[in-house]
Amino acid sequence: MMHPAHVLLPEAGADAYLHLDIEAWEILEQDYGDAFLSIVAAGLRYPAPAIVARCLALSIKNVPDEAMADAPWGLTLDELARRLNDALHLMWRGKTVAEIEEEHAREVRIGARKAAAEMVTETEVPA
């Protein structure tokens, strides 16, 4: 059974996946200090090759040795960084980046509707 924080990476092999486990988080904290989470998240959101490479090295699982020579398996830096960012956020918040962004957009839409409804109520002229 696949762990909910695994991100598939079939380009690297049939069973390949990305997973930033707690040990990987500890290493990232040692590498980047107390602000590691914001540094790594920014380095994956706006792909920084050094951060992408470090996260890939810490997270890649079930990839045959011969397949590692083909990294990044035809993926662009941005495509690989997006999957790593999903692995980071799945472990951190239990959701992919797209799920978090959709949740935020939904909250913004609800807030806008409430604000619009309040404006209408405030501008009504009493009879």
Describe the structure.
This protein is mainly alpha-helical and 127 residues long. The chain has helices at 22-32, 36-45, 49-59, 65-68, 77-93, 97-123; strands at 7-8, 17-18, 60-61. It has a three-stranded antiparallel beta sheet with strand order 1-2-3.
Helix-strand layout with pairing:
Blueprint: E1 7-8, E2 17-18, H1 22-32, H2 36-45, H3 49-59, E3 60-61, H4 65-68, H5 77-93, H6 97-123
Antiparallel strand pairs: 1-2, 2-3
Helix pairs in contact: 1-2, 2-5, 3-5
Poorly predicted tracts of residues: none
**Largest sheet: spatial strand order:** 1-2-3
- Strand residues, percent: under 5%
| Helical coverage, percent range | 55-70%
Largest sheet: 3 strands, antiparallel
Whole-number mean pLDDT: 85
Task: Write a short abstract of this structure.
It is built from 6 helices and 3 strands; from the N terminus they run ββαααβααα.
Which key phrases capture this entry?
127 residues, mainly alpha, three-stranded antiparallel beta sheet, 6 helices, 3 strands, 5% strand, elongated
